[in-house]
Amino acid sequence: MFQGIFDRKTISLNGMWDYRIDQNDIGKRQSWYLTDYSGNGWRTIQVPGNWYLNEEIGDYFGTIWYKKDFRLTEKKGERIFVRFEGVDYITEVWLNGKYLGFHEGMFNPFEFEITDFVDYDGNNTLIVRDCAPKDPTEFIEADNDETPLSDGYKFHQSKGITQIKGHMIEAMHRPGCYSKYRMDGNSGGIWGNVSIVTKPEIFIENVKIFTKMDMNGDGREYQDSAMASFDVYINSNCAKEKEIELGLDITPYNFEQEMNCTVKRTVIVRPGSNRFKLTARIEQVALWWTWDHGKPNLYTASITAMEDHISTNFGVKEIHQDEKGQWYLNNKHIFLRGMRYISSLWMSEANEDMWNADFDKMLDMKINAIRIGSHIERDGVYKICDEKGLLLWQVFALHYCISDSDDVISRASDMIRDMGYMLTNHACMGMWSVYKEPEIYGLEDKPNTYFKLCDVLRDTLGQVDTDRWIHKGDYREDVQNIMIGSCQDGDMDVHEEVIKPNVVEFGADSVPSLKSLMKFIPTDKLWPPDWDVWQYWGLFYYNQFRRAKTELGDSLEAFIYNTQKYEALVVKEQIELLRQKKYQPVCSMYLYYWSDACPLMGSGLFDYYREPYQVYESMKAVYTEVLISLEWNEEPHVIGRPKKYIRGDQFVGKIWVTNDHFHSIPDAKIFWCITDTEGNRVKEKTFTLDLKEDSAEVVDTIKWKIPEDYVGEYKISMCVEDGTGNILSRNSTVIMATE
Questions:
Q1: Cα separation, 595 vs 565, whole angstroms
Q2: CA 208, CA 465: separation in Å to the nearest integer?
Q3: Are residues 193 and 205 in the same domain?
Q4: Using alpha carbons only, what angle is made at residue 450 by residues 449 and 453, rounded to the nearest 5 degrees?
Q5: pTM for the complete prediction?
Q6: pLDDT digits (tens, 9 = 90+) for 225-258
Q7: CA 276, CA 83: separation in Å to the nearest integer?
Q8: Domain of residue 523, residue span
Q9: Element (H or E) spanning 565, and its range?
């Protein structure tokens, strides 16, 4: 079982290690794990680190051996463990020539006890064999689109991936995108921290926390107290049963409150693993809220078992979904302005500086929810979301075409159980998905993942987390993607589209700045574009020129501008459309995604180098808590395109105001005006009204006959202020008068 990460005494083994590439997989036969083995070919490498980022190794698939010498000065009698935060993908470990064990996976931490193998008086040698191979699946061309791409770079579909790595092995936006090279960019390596951990003879393996807000007698209203329940897993190395006292103390972590919440229980611990329950009532409970609706209040639970003491933070909240797919946080209907997030394709790059910079910008953009998948981030991400008040939707590490074999189901189930134990205590955790798009295939004969693999995974995760909603994946259960001009036709009529409550991906694609582009596209492939190379690095030819209908232009700079301009407009108008449909039925929306996970032509607000695309500013302007927006009279209703009207036409536009606050806004001032290209106002209006709390409504309708003597653009500018003159939202839409 997954063992918790706590504030124990550790010795870091990070730093320079020896490594040796085992291209022909002969290391085990030649006993490279023996401490006296001195074969040639050992070099040095930084740990933690994904080997793709090492210039000497690069995009290598196969086995690499790691070696680290260390000394221990700790007194004998303590139990000693070696802990790995993350190794990708199949790991075997030896200490001083003794085999410690095997681990499969790339995101779940693991450890081995080394108490009996440690030499306290001399040198210790730790050997790690890491195998990150290409998956044995076959990739088959499944492309009927007319493009200038060579056969190898056209769309290819895997028959059934067998490794549980999600975005790190099979996804749309990664090196080799959609081509037969789509597994390139290997994430192999010891990417997480390695440490020696000391524990007492009887220690706390893990703690699983449940919270439940108290209800009144008829079960309709919450009270001001809550129950906190702790499953405490105890490991004993004693030869006999032993009576011990468990202790629990709950204190505020990030707020001030006088409280006395202490529990003690005497239990009998048997040799091996044990599980006990501790339960405490929290009076005058301070709830965890998203940052925009309250404070993300956190408590600290301190638990003792004889000499062992650990502490972990938790929050008290309830998140549930009603029969219409709507979300309620602490019994309040909530709208989630979300963002999909992946810090990097190579997780060793992720760190607190990166996360804090990213999440501070998200808060500045008024984002209140994050969707992570199909991968698991380092633990620091979840701690930041706990403390900053960002509600999280976690997707398990499965993406696209996965095998539905019994073996894959068994291995994936073990890993999703680990994911549950790793993350369920985090206050930010809101909901789960067991798979990212299990029914997206380009082949007729596809694995039965949705009705086979996904059912088992949901059942397994549900045994760990009995409270939160678990989504099987794909576009069922009130979930869908909207990627207009990318994965969907840019000329689609959005008024004819059936929109579901949870839009888990929306957005479009574009090309990063020339400065960023030149870092990963060879100069001779830039212009005119070598479409094979561009497709490999994320420019989906069919999407750009058949769906988005982007103009190539007469220069590279013009093409970059055209792609970014289109993405900025179509994303802005997707947001306006979805927020006008607030609770009718939309209740959550997640941009795909914050930043490109690798050097790429992607769908992020920022590229891999954290340089912003044009869409960053346009999205920031319309992700405000209060939004004023226009719905214009055009049928079919197409967004992201010029809005053309013939001179003399009647223009009708509905002015919408969306208020995501849990409070009304009295005496709000609404202003709109229409100006021509010279800035002349041709029509305007100002009025006041009370904006309802947590609402979206039409507050006015513009009816205007377009002058017959003018050809050109008109700008419809809109603004809403609160009763004291503070600007809550500015927005504008451009229409064109034509011959």
A1: 17
A2: 9
A3: no
A4: 50
A5: 0.95
A6: 999 999 999 999 999 999 999 999 999 999 999 9
A7: 25
A8: 335-622
A9: helix 556-580
